[in-house]
Amino acid sequence: MEIVTRERFATSNQEVHHLPHGQTIEEMMKAVGWKTDLRPWTYVSVDGQPVPAELWKVARPKEGRRVLIALRPAGGGGG
């Protein structure tokens, strides 16, 4: 299963990980080293469909799916 991680949402700078299927999203986050303190600002999708944080402990993406783990865009600046 392909897991893509991005520490910035709108960037092409990313890491691609390959993990066996059958893991929950939370287990995948641990396996790729996603920092626990970033989770409140984390966005997760499976094949482009957002997955709410309350499902990360139970959701097990099917084999062949692409999982994205990224930081959500945050407001800032004086816009």
Q: Roughly what fraction of the amino acids lie in strands? A: 25-35%
Rough shape?
A: globular
Order of helices and strands: EEHEEE
Supply Rg.
Answer: 12 Å
**Order of strands across the main sheet:** 2-1-5-3-4
How helix-rich are the residues, as a percent range? under 10%
Q: Count of helical segments?
A: 1
Distance between the termini: 39 Å
**Mean pLDDT score:** 88
Structural class: mainly beta
- Point out poorly predicted stretches: none
Label this structure with key terms:
single chain; 79 residues; mainly beta; 5-stranded mixed sheet; 5 strands; 28% strand; globular
Give a brief outline of the structure.
With about 80 residues, the protein is mostly beta strands. About 10% of the residues lie in helices and about 30% in strands.
Structural summary, described in words:
By secondary structure, the protein is mainly β. Helices cover 9% and strands 28% of the residues. The protein has a 5-stranded mixed β-sheet with strand order 2-1-5-3-4, covered by helices on one side. The longest helix is centred in the middle third of the chain and has 7 residues, at 25-31. The model has no long low-confidence stretch (mean pLDDT 88).
